[in-house]
Amino acid sequence: xxxxxxxxxxxxxxxxxxxxxxxxxxxxxxxxxxxxxxxxxxxxxxxxxxxxxxxxxxxxxxxxxxxxxxxxxxxxxxxxxxxxxxxxxxxxxxxxxxxxxxxxxxxxxxxxxxxxxxxxxxxxxxxxxxxxxxxxxxxxxxxxxxxxxxxxxxxxxxxxxxxxxxxxxxxxxxxxxxxxxxxxxxxxxxxxxxxxxxxxxxxxxxxxxxxxxxxxxxxxxxxxxxxxxxxxxxxxxxxxxxxxxxxxxxxxxxxxxxxxxxxxxxxxxxxxxxxxxxxxxxxxxxxxxxxxxxxxxxxxxxxxxxxxxxxxxxxxxxxxxxxxxxxxxxxxxxxxxxxxxxxxxxxxxxxxxxxxxxxxxxxxxxxxxxxxxxxxxxxxxxxxxxxxxxxxxxxxxxxxxxxxxxxxxxxxxxxxxxx
Length: 419
Description:
Blueprint: H1 16-39, E1 43-45, E2 52-54, E3 56-72, E4 75-79, E5 84-89, E6 96-97, E7 102-107, H2 109-170, H3 177-235, E8 237-239, E9 244-248, E10 256-257, E11 262-267, E12 272-279, E13 291-296, E14 299-308, E15 316-323, E16 336-353, E17 363-369, E18 374-385, E19 389-394, E20 401-403, E21 415-418
Parallel strand pairs: 1-21
Antiparallel strand pairs: 2-20, 3-12, 3-16, 4-11, 5-7, 5-10, 6-9, 7-8, 9-11, 12-15, 13-14, 13-16, 14-15, 16-19, 17-18, 18-19, 18-21
Helix pairs in contact: 2-3
């Protein structure tokens, strides 16, 4: 019986003896095209770890973001007015106090003893002043009596002189001329004596006033010294001068405190503002009066830029933002916050996500991708920038894709192949 054989119609390249030759040819062909592509690129990099962005057109909010803390606007530094040793601490950091609440009790035995001695001195001076007033009053009465006596003696002699004068004029012979002269001399003497007593009385009154004034001044001086000493004694019991929260105090029992030494820091928790650190590259866009959004523990509040520090510290500039509205109960000094300052709003512009290490209002070399996976270095003029976006003034069109990642190591290459 004859068996019919099937005809093999496979192409020549698929025949077993030609398969190996075909695979080798395909391999060489692939290497050729790969080499052609690579030969057009100056550098080849792996694109798995790169970030890309497409150029968009539309409204763009220009804002500047930074981190910071809440700071108190009203701060009261409580200092010791006297030297003393800490006997007892009544409040600790974080406690809320009202005006008059005791913060700490100090002790100073030397001050207490000095105050007691001043009190004794004051009592002595007051007693001396009272005694002086009595003595001077008695002297004044005696001087007044002497003056009156001199006046009465003069007036009596003057009456006798008038009577003798009438007798002499009548030439009655009752009064001799010698007695009459003696009476005249006596009247003159008593008159002068009365005048002297009047002068002595006047001088005595001035002397009394001067002595009383001097002793009173000495007593008042001692009283002022006693009052100051008593105030220092009262100052040993340190109280809160205002309502607020004690933010800082490191007092310990037995600690020696010097006059002027800081005891506590009291802040008003209702008057807080944000101290935000912004990059020096972004600060040029920030101006006083601009609105800002403060994020406080997932709660947002509006604010206004009130101060821009003129100094740069570690590449950062401090900006103070006044908070509007009522703050939450958990808002307190040194609480970390995030702030976003609204610089401006661009209505219709080209923009991309902000590439690494670029500055606003500056020309930059960016890498733009084509359809074959090549990144070509192009000159791009950038405009205003926010924390995440930056304006394109020229060099790119809508839909262009650029490399966002750091390309500082590529700058010597004009074309880079992105695998």
